[in-house]
Design a protein that fits this description.
The protein has 320 residues and is mostly helical. It folds into 2 domains: 128 residues, Serine Threonine Protein Phosphatase 5, Tetratricopeptide repeat, CATH 1.25.40; 186 residues, Up-down Bundle (Butyryl-CoA Dehydrogenase, subunit A, domain 3), CATH 1.20.140. The chain is built from 11 helices and no strands. The longest helix has 42 residues. The protein is elongated, with a radius of gyration of 27 Å. One of its GO terms (cellular component) is membrane.
């Protein structure tokens, strides 16, 4: 009969784990048939909540440093590819989470663990490379394909806004005898405020589209090594989509403002409301998981800010 505590941990049933440890505290120090203790299983399952619970309620003396029957350290077990409860879809999110989880476990491991080889003669970084090479390539291809389409969209929006800046509604005063020669005709009319708003909207739309292009070019030129998935790629991805959303919203607003300046009458709210709602819905649906991951990664970074982040870069630097 298998250990109920180990079964509960393997299936991420934290409530049952808590009840068992509440009644039988010493059960935490048992091992399964493979020589794994409960910390090993929590790390292997990538169960962050259970891992934090065990850190708070179980004495870790010797448990984190223990090896299983195959000579795997807790760091070796953290390199295995698997579905995290925080990741529902997306190769970028899966790869980013696995890199972050490896760093997270490394913080709690003895520094020399990154050099230890298991019974197969492999270090943790070598196993991570083997297990994640396909996922990294798939994530790179998916991100580049989507990024190419978004770059085209951002370039088109930027072109529209650039042209709008020099094609002002109402045109330019061409009368050389006029005191307002070469100035916008509507600039000195009752539409002056609306014209300034139009120019401001197009300016923000143009600037935001340029920011989106810069972020997307950064993604396209990335090396896509494992360490890039930790923070650089998720940040650029969110920055690119956020800038693209802002540029799209301000471009649409400038369009409706131009209609208003030209006295084209229609109910703006009928169009703007649904348009903005759909845009925001698509945006949050796309970046929600990435933002959730970045929140966890930053929280982890602040929790261990006393340790140098560059040290973990060395862990993923060899062979990636």
């Amino acid at each position: 009969m298998r250990n109920p505590l180990m079964l509960a941990a393997e299936n991420s049933i934290q409530e049952l784990v808590e009840k068992i440890l509440e009644k039988f505290p010493d059960a935490a120090y048992t091992i399964d048939g493979n020589g794994k203790n409960i910390f090993h299983i929590a790390v292997e399952q990538k169960d962050e909540k259970m891992y934090e619970f065990l850190k708070r309620n179980v004495r870790r003396d010797g448990m984190v440093e223990a090896l299983d029957n195959e000579g795997n350290t807790i760091l070796h077990l953290a390199t295995k590819k698997g579905n995290s409860p925080r990741v529902l879809l997306g190769h970028l999110n899966q790869m980013a989470w696995d890199v972050c989880w490896l760093k997270r476990v490394w913080y709690d491991s003895p520094p020399h663990f990154q050099y230890i080889r298991n019974s197969d003669g492999k270090t943790a970084s070598e196993i991570f490379e083997e297990n994640h090479s396909d996922l990294r390539e798939t994530a790179e291809k998916a991100l580049k394909d989507m990024n190419s389409s978004l770059m085209l969209t951002s370039a088109l929006i930027g072109t529209v806004n650039y042209a709008a800046v020099f094609t002002i509604p109402g045109g330019i005063d061409q009368d050389r005898k006029s005191p307002y020669f070469s100035q916008p005709i509507l600039y000195h009319s009752h539409n002056e405020k609306d014209l300034l708003l139009f120019l401001w909207y197009t300016g923000v739309g143009l600037f935001s589209s340029l920011l989106a292009l810069v972020a997307m070019i950064g993604i396209q030129l990335s090396r896509f090594c494992s360490n890039d998935f930790y923070m650089a790629l998720p940040f650029r991805f969110v920055a690119a989509l956020t800038s693209l959303l802002v540029s799209t919203i301000f471009t649409i607003t400038a369009c409706f403002k131009a209609y208003n300046i030209l006295d084209i009458k229609f109910n703006i709210n009928v169009f703007m409301g649904p348009a903005f709602y759909v845009l925001c819905l698509i945006y949050f649906d796309t970046v929600y998981l990435t933002l959730k991951y970045m929140y966890f990664a930053l929280r982890c970074w602040f929790s261990y800010r006393g340790q140098e982040m560059s040290e973990t870069s060395e862990l993923l630097g060899r062979g990636f």
